[in-house]
Amino acid sequence: MSRAGALLAREVALAWGKGGGPLVTLGFYVGTATLLPLATGPEPARLAAIATGMAWVALALAALLSLERLFERDFEDGALDLMVLSPVPLELVCALKCLGQWIATGAPLALAAPLAAIGLGAKPELVPLILACALVGGLAFAFTGGIGAALSLGARRGGLLTAVIVLPLFVPPVIFGGAALDAFASGLPWQAGLALLGAYTAAAVALGPLAMAAACRNALS
Amino acid sequence: MISQLSLENLAICRGGRTLFAGLSHTLTTGQALALTGRNGAGKTSLLRAIAGLVALETGQVGFGGLDPAEARAGGLHLIGHLEGLKPGRTAGEELTFWRRWLGGSSGAFESAVVTLELSTLLDLEVRRLSAGQRRRLALARLLAAPRPLWLLDEPLSPLDAGWRERLGQIMAGHLAGGGLIVAAVHDPLPIPAITLEIGS
User: Fold this and answer.
1) Residues 6 or more apart from A16 whose CB is under 8 A from it?
2) Measured in Å, how far apart are chain A's first and last C-alpha atoms?
3) In chain B, alpha helices (H)
4) A113, B83, B130, B190: least CB-packed within 10 angstroms?
5) CA A216 to CA A89: how far, in whole Å?
6) The whole model's pTM is what?
C-alpha cells in the first residue's frame, strides 16, 4: 500500500511539477473554447444551443495533451524497468499512473468545464451535470488515453500516434456525455446518458490497465 | 533470499541477430561475476534477461530454486546507464521515492546517504548533478533497499578514482554479507571477480 501511495504521489507531483502541465492544459482548454464561437458566429441563441457540446469536445481534446508524457518519460529514463522489478503488478502501476493523470489534469479540467460552458451561453442549471459528466468522463479519457500512450511507446512522434489511437476510444464517452447534457437541456430524461458514460468509464478502468501493461512489457523487451 | 544464480545454456537474439548462444554459468552467494566483451556483445541484454526484461531465445535463468517472478520482484537490483531519475525533481525526492518503491527502511535510507556522501546533494535538482553524482544517487538504491542480487551495468564508468575504490568497498561488503553481483564492465572491477567474456 505504501508503494502504491508513493507512486501516486510521485505521478501527481511530476504532472504538477515544473512546466505547469495542468495549467498549460487548462490554457489550451480555455483557448479552444474561445476559438469555437469565433468560427460559428456570435449569436447567443445559436451559441447556447451548442455550448455544452463545444465545451465537452474541447474537454476531450484537452485531455489528449498531457498523455504523451504518461509513460514516455519513465520509459526513456529507465524508471519503467525499475517499476517492473517490484512486487506491485504492472497493471496496478499503469492504473495508478492514469489515476495520477486524472487527479493532476482531469479534475482541474472538470472544474473548468462548467465555467467554459456557461461562458459559451449554456444554462446555469446544467452546471452540476456538466461537472459530473466531466469528472466521470475524465476518468475514461485518462484510462483509454493511457492505452494509446502505452501502445505508442518508443515510436517516433509518439504524441501524434497517441492521438490517432486514442480519438476513436474517446468517441463513446463524448457521445454518452453529450447525449446526457443535450437531454437535460431539452427537459428530457438524461439519466441513461450518464449511466452509459459511467459504464464505459468502469470498463475502461477495469480493462485499460491490462492493455497498458501488455503494451509496456512489449516495449521494454 | 537468492542464494544462487544459474545461467543455463542462454541465447539471446536482438533484431534478428544472435548476440550469443550456449552461455552457462553458476554463481553462488558471496561471488561476483564480471561480464566483459566488445561493445554490442550483449552484456546489457544479458543483465536485462536475468532481470526478466528481455526474452531469452533458449535456456533459462535459475534463482536457486526460487520462483523466478518472485525472485525478480523482490530480490534484485538493476542499475543501468538509464538511471531512472527525473531531471526536474530533487535528489532527495527521487531517492525517497525509490526507497519506498523498493521497500527499504528509513534507516537504510540514512545509511545509503551517509555511505555515498549524498547529504549535501539531496536538495539539488537531479539536472544540476554531475554524471558521477547522478550515478552515486542511483547506486544509493542498492543500500537504501537491501536486496541480494545486484545487476550493475558499467557501474564504474562515470566515477572518479576515489569513488571507484569506495564502490569496491561497498561491493565487497555486499558479498561478505552473502550477496551476489553481476556487473558488465570494461575496466577491471575493484574486487576479486570471476570474468566471463561474452560473444567471444
Assistant:
1) A22, A104
2) 28
3) 43-50, 68-75, 91-102, 106-115, 131-144, 161-176
4) B130
5) 12
6) 0.90
ipTM: 0.87
Closest-approach residue (CA) in chain B for A83: B101
C-alpha cell at position A28: 489550451
Judged by CB atoms closer than 8 Å, whether chains meet at A17 and B88 is answered as yes
List of chain B residues whose C-beta atoms are within 8 Å of the C-beta of residue A74: 84
Report the relative pairing of strands B58-62 and B180-184 from DSSP bridges.
Answer: unpaired
By CB atoms closer than 10 A (0-12, 13-18, 19+), residue B39 is: exposed
The count of other CB atoms within 10 Å of the CB of residue B160 is: 11
How far apart, in whole angstroms, are the C-alpha atoms of residue B13 and residue B25? 19
Residue pointed to by grid coordinates 481534446: A61
Cross-chain Cβ contact A81/B51 below 8 Å: yes
Does A221 reach chain B within 8 Å, measured CB to CB?
yes
From CA B103, how far away is CA B125, in angstroms rounded? 23
d(CA B60, CA A3): 30
Tens place of pLDDT for every residue, chain A, 221 residues? 688 999 999 999 888 875 567 888 888 888 888 888 888 877 888 888 788 888 888 888 888 887 888 898 899 889 999 998 888 999 999 999 999 999 988 899 999 999 888 888 888 888 999 999 999 999 999 999 999 999 998 787 777 888 899 999 999 999 999 999 889 888 899 899 999 999 999 999 999 999 999 999 999 88
Assign residue A41 a region (left: φ > 0; alpha: ψ between -120 and 50; beta: otherwise). Answer: left
Residue B101 with chain A: CB contacts under 8 Å: 3, 6-7, 82-83, 86
